[in-house]
UniProtKB/TrEMBL annotation:
Its EC number is 4.2.1.44. Its cofactor is glutathione; Co(2+); Mn(2+). This is Inosose dehydratase. Residues 37-293 form the Xylose isomerase-like TIM barrel domain. It holds the Pfam family AP_endonuc_2. Belongs to the IolE/MocC family. SUPFAM superfamilies: Xylose isomerase-like. GO terms for biological process: inositol catabolic process. Keywords: Cobalt, Lyase, Manganese. Gene3D superfamilies: Divalent-metal-dependent TIM barrel enzymes (3.20.20.150). The gene is iolE.
Length: 297
């Protein structure tokens, strides 16, 4: 069980409108999305591309509904572009997130990523050489220090189709980054889809986890996506992921480890699927009820 004094519950807007495939949920407005998040009982949210760009307007809209921003995705290009090209926008994003009340930023290395490409997600992703590993880890340490100086945490999102996808890659990243500067963004859905037991990774790195994405996997749909050599996004469209409690991930050990080892921070329901098939408000409410019963928050 999680301690609700230490852990806050948020939700990502990706169930309403998908940033990677904006046709999914294009009819859902920002106001509908945040109102339904609040009505379903969430304390916070991540930021999607329908959210107002003006941070004051955004903050007012969220304050009105009792929501806080807990994180936002940030793409780095540390192994393919000069460091400064990532560092400048990173500093700006940190300032905005801090103003909005977040204490973490969710980083994903997007150099050579195939997550948005029309190619089979289990084939041909980029594998880093030693030089690229150094660029990534040193770059993350430097960005982590910039975040740390602003009382923010850099959390790294392992992700299907990216340079940090599998267990060995997560291990190498954790081993070669500074534990005081670089934290892990644990995503139960990406680990499960990759064929990695989320419990194993969490047990190993819970002391470095700075943010949590709770994503469930429909294993039969995921297996079909793999067998049919679908792209990541076509798999999502077909229903690879769903809200926690609705798929095949065993969340019990995940909650035991987070609770038992004193995780403090946000856990976020992040379940991208087609809103025409899975009504986002209904699924947000289902996940809320499941987390109250299964995680005690
Ligand atoms: O954290 C995430 C952000 C999404 O845009 C992404 O594609 C999704 O899979 C995810 O885990
Ligand atoms: Co995620």
């Amino acid at each position: 069980m999680l301690d609700s004094k230490k852990v806050s519950l948020g939700i990502a807007p990706i169930g309403w409108t998908n940033d990677d495939m904006p046709d999914l949920g294009k009819e859902n407005t920002f106001e509908q999305c945040v109102s339904e998040m609040a009505l379903a009982g969430y304390a916070g949210c991540e930021i999607g591309n329908k959210f107002p760009a003006d941070r004051e307007v955004l903050k007012r809209a969220l304050d009105l509904r009792g929501l806080t921003v807990c994180n936002q995705w940030f793409s780095t290009f540390l192994i393919s572009r000069p460091f400064e090209e990532t560092a400048g926008p990173f500093e700006e994003k940190l300032d905005t997130l801090k103003y909005l009340g977040a204490r973490v930023i969710g980083v994903s290395e997007q150099s050579y990523s195939i997550q948005g490409k029309k190619q089979p997600i289990f084939e041909g992703k980029h594998v880093m050489d030693d030089r690229e590993w150094n660029l990534l880890c040193e770059g993350l340490n430097r960005l982590g220090k910039i975040a740390n100086d602003r009382q923010m945490k850099l959390t790294f999102h392992h992700h299907m189709g990216t340079v940090v996808q599998d267990e060995k890659e997560i291990d190498r990243l954790m081993a070669h980054t500074d534990p005081d500067m670089v934290y892990l963004l644990f995503d139960s859905g990406h680990l499960s889809f990759c064929g990695i037991d989320p419990e194993k990774i969490l047990n190993r790195y819970v002391s470095r986890v700075g943010h949590v994405h709770l994503k469930d996997l429909r294993s039969s749909v995921a297996a079909e996506a793999k067998a049919k050599r679908l792209s990541f996004l076509d798999g999502v469209r077909g229903g690879t992921f769903t809200v926690p409690g609705d798929g095949d991930v065993d969340f019990k050990p995940i909650f035991e480890i987070l609770g038992g080892r004193g995780y403090e921070g946000w856990v976020v329901v992040e379940a991208e699927q087609d809103p025409a098939k899975a009504n986002p408000f209904e699924y947000a409410k289902r996940a809320r009820a499941y987390l109250r019963a299964a995680a005690g928050i």
